[in-house]
Every structure is written in C-alpha cells, then in structure tokens.
Amino acid sequence: MAIVAHQDPLQLLKNRTKKSYQLFQEAQQVMPGGVTANIKYFDPYPIMMAEAEGSRLKDVDGNEYVDYLLAYGALILGHGHHKVTNAVIRQMVTKGTTIFGTPHELEVEMAKRLVKLYPGVEQVRYTNSGTEATLLAIRLAHAYTGKSKIAKFEGHYHGGYDQVLLSINPPLDQAGPADAPVAVPDSAGIDVYYQEHTIILPFNDLEATADILKARKEELAAVVVEPVQAGFIPATESFMQGLRKLTEELGILLIFDEVKTCFRVALGGAQSLYGIKPDLTALGKVLGGGFPVGAVGGKKEIMDVASPHGKKDVFEMNVKSKKKDVLFHSGTYNGHPSVLAAGLATLDVLEEGDNFETIVRTTEKLRRGLENVLRYYQIPVQTLGLGTIFNLVMTTEPITNYRDLQNANLDLRRQLDYYLLTLGVYTKPLNRYSLSLAHSDREIQETIDAYEAAAKQLLVKRGSQLNQD
C-alpha cells in the first residue's frame, strides 16, 4: 500500500486495522485495558494478530508483516519451526502426558547443556519465566549472604515484581544525580520498603558504581545487571571487568540477567563474550523455544542453598523443623517437559552448522542497510546491539546508558515506526529488533525498501511543517 503524502501515519494505521480496533473494543470489556500484559499495548490500540509463519505475522484484517518483535526475542528460529513443533508433539505423544509432575530426563539433559555453554553455570533450577528466574536468583543471594539489600542499574529491567520494578524508565527530574541515581518506582502499589532496600547504580560508570558499592557493601547481597541493557546497550569491556573484580573484593554476589541475551548475543550468552563468570545467571526467552520458561544457574555452593537434602521444606508437616534452613523454591510447571523439548530442539538447530552465525550475519546486513538508508536521507541514526538483536537510536551521539538514550529523538523514531507498520514491518514502536533463522535476504530487502519509503514520508512531513512555520 502506498502512503499518501502529508497523511498522518496513525490515520493510515487505523484505516488498515479496522478489525483490530473492533476486537480491541471487545477486549476492553473483559480485560483491563484490553490486554493481558501492559507491555502489549501501544497507542492508538495494539494490532491483533491472527496467524504467523516463519518471519511473518498476519493480523485479523489480513495485513502481513515482517516480524522483528518475535515475542520480544523468544523465537530465534521464527514462528512454527518444524523441528520445534515436532519435538513438542513427539514428547506429548510418545510419553503419554503433557506433564509428569515429577523429575524427568529432559530436566537433566537441558541442565547439562547449560552447564557446558555458560561459564558461570555449575547447577540449574528451572522456573516458568525470566521474571521468576531473577526473583529466585535474588532470593538465593539473600539466603547465601544473609544481607537484606540488592543493587540494580538505572534503566535495567529484571521483571515485574516490587524489588526490581524501580528506576527502569524514571523521569530525569526525579532520578537524582547521574552518578548517584535514586530509586524511583515504575508502578503504583510498590511499598517504600523496596525503595529503601534496592540501591540504584549508574550503568557503564565504574567509578561512581564503585563509590556506591563500597559505601553499602555491608548491606548488599548482590548486584544484578543486564550485561546488555534492554538487549541493545552493551556494557563496556572495562566496566564489566571492573564490576566483576569489585563485587568479588567487596563480597557482593554478581547476578547476570541474561533473559534477553540468552542464545541471542552468543550461544554462551554475554558472559562468554565478556569472559566473566557471574555468581548467578538468570535465563529465559529463547531457552523455551516459544514456550514460557526461565532458569537460574550458578556456582554449586550458592545453588546448593536451595537443595532439600537433609533439610525440612515449607510443606513438611513438622512444627519443630526450622523452615529457614532451606530456601524454598517450587513450581508445578518448573522444567515442563514440553517446554524443555522445545528448548532443546531450538538449541539443536542453533548449534547445527553455522546457523547461529547465519542469523548474526543477517542481523549485520539489516543494520548496515537501515543505517545507510536513513543517513542518505540525512536522518541522524545509529544501530546498537550485539549478535542477533539491536535497536535504532535517532542520534549520532554515543549511547552508553539510560540517560544518554533520553537525549535521542524518540519522537522521530516513534513516527518512523508507525509509518513502518503501514508498510508491513512489525515491531512495537520504539522496541528493539530481534532476528531469526527464518529472516532471509528477501525479508531484509523488503525491510530496507520500507525504510526508504518511510524516510521519504518523514521528509515530506518535515517539509510540510517548515512551510507551516
């Protein structure tokens, strides 16, 4: 569909997605805000999808999109990869059940694979989401160290629970000094206790981070960090090496949140690129091959805090037992066999031949192509990321942390994203791009062509605004 000059991209989107709008009106009657997760919403309303295959989505109006959201990066093989589908069906059909509710062999098999691939992982516990994984990692840190507080970095997301739902996207006029940020709640309903027990750190600023950690070392159980902030702003090598050394010296555990970077920046995660062994690692997304999953891995001596051997658990009906002797971690669906079958099949494909490297090369090709198009039309831009994920930032200034990102032209990027939605390129506005094995040269060229059409419309709009002025 050709874009009409001077027409607002939001109106174009509304014209294309009338059934989505109707379905969204129905959804609002039965779900708060019409969605089951706030992250799924964007103005004027989210596009309702009907089908998917490979690298493509189709909405309820019949519009087709090249998908770069990929379930926020979870689908590294694309939608409906036959080996993943077959593995899940085979598991359910040949084993006679969807879930055992007991230990099973796939739990052991996946754990062995993770221990082999991830430098900091000696033992593994499964969860049902990345959020649950970081929650367990933090509980392990509290139990192991006996300390009551944690530290996280400004702009980093570790899940939707109270202890870490702080200073992810804080207004800068409330966030405190750049070298000493304060805890700003990102949700209603967060008790002030968590603001007092979660220390906020400045990402990629080792000197300021060191000052804060040294002053609070007696209180801090752990520092939790996304080694690649939001999946696209990497830590500098010197910062990450310095953070590892510093936490070891101060007796503070280092937790890598690799939920986004798991099998995305490297098969061994960001820790394999930086050459660092964190004390604990949270994994998710790609690990489940499109199903809900999470995992925590780490040093045996720390993970062993969760072992029930010789200890009493919360469900033991013995009033004389000391329940605090064991760290409670449970979940009926932890290590779900269908999920692990999908995850193992995904990992098999990624390790086959040069499949992972192929996705990385495709990603690089797209990044260079998009930069070239936008720069040709004199739109300031850079792509940031590692491996198979990146984001476009509308500025040529260096981006090393959350505050740098606020200086980029976010409104221009948002306008671009809305034009792209009308041209069949899908990601949630302002979100990062994730690629898959299903993205071929055809999809890359379609995307570059769409960017060129969108860039022209941005220039037309800019010219129109200048004429009005």
Explain what you see:
- It is an enzyme of class 5 (isomerase).
- One of its GO terms (molecular function) is glutamate-1-semialdehyde 2,1-aminomutase activity.
- It is a single chain.
- The protein is α/β, with parallel strands linked by helices.
- It has two domains: 9-80 and 355-468, Aspartate Aminotransferase, domain 1, CATH 3.90.1150; 82-351, Type I PLP-dependent aspartate aminotransferase-like (Major domain) (Aspartate Aminotransferase, domain 2, 3-Layer(aba) Sandwich).
- Helices cover 41% and strands 14% of the residues.
- The chain has helices at 9-16, 18-30, 70-73, 82-95, 105-117, 130-145, 192-197, 206-216, 237-250, 269-274, 300-303, 337-351, 355-376, 402-406, 410-422, 441-468, and strands at 49-53, 56-59, 64-67, 123-127, 149-153, 198-201, 220-225, 228-229, 233-234, 253-257, 280-284, 294-298, 382-386, 389-393, 425-426, 433-434.
- A seven-stranded mixed β-sheet has the order 4-12-11-10-7-5-6, sandwiched between helices.
- Helix 8 packs parallel to helix 9 and helix 13 runs parallel beside helix 16.
- The chain is globular and about 70 Å long.
- The model has no long low-confidence stretch (mean pLDDT 94).
